[in-house]
Every structure is written in structure tokens, then in C-alpha cells.
């Protein structure tokens, strides 16, 4: 019989293995999603967004 006073030994959980192909795909998808934002930021910096002159009222 087992001794009820001692708890059973705990084994550390092993990390799940990840698929390398899926990781590469997710990195590529993330870069593709970042491209439009980066391009907008560059264009806004070049064009001076928000600094355009407002037409004068007569």
C-alpha cells in the first residue's frame, strides 16, 4: 500500500513542440499585415500630414 502522508512526485510539464512551418507562415503573415501601416507612416511623414494650408475664406 502507498503512504498517504507523502504526495506523489510532480513531473514538470514538457513544452509542446511547435511546427516550424507554421511559425514561418505566421511571421510572413505578420510582416504582410505591417506593410500598409509602414507605407502610410512614410507617406504621411513625406507629405507633412496635418500641415496643409487651409483655404482662406473670402
Would you mind describing this structure in some detail?
The protein is an all-alpha fold and 58 residues long. Helices cover 48% and strands 0% of the residues. It has one helix spanning 20-47. The longest helix has 28 residues, at 20-47. The termini are far apart.
Task: Catalogue the unreliable spans.
Answer: none
Rounded to an integer, what's the Rg over CA atoms?
29 Å
**Helical proportion, percent range:** 40-55%
Q: List the secondary-structure elements in sequence, H or E.
A: H
- The whole-number mean of residue pLDDT values reads 81
In a nutshell, what does this entry contain?
The protein has 58 residues and is mostly helical. It has 1 helix and no strands.
Amino acid at each position: 500500500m502507498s503512504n498517504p502522508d507523502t504526495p506523489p512526485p510532480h513531473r514538470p510539464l514538457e513544452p509542446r513542440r511547435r511546427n516550424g512551418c507554421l511559425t514561418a507562415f505566421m511571421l510572413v503573415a505578420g510582416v504582410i499585415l505591417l506593410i500598409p501601416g509602414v507605407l502610410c507612416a512614410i507617406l504621411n511623414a513625406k507629405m507633412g500630414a496635418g500641415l496643409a494650408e487651409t483655404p482662406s475664406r473670402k
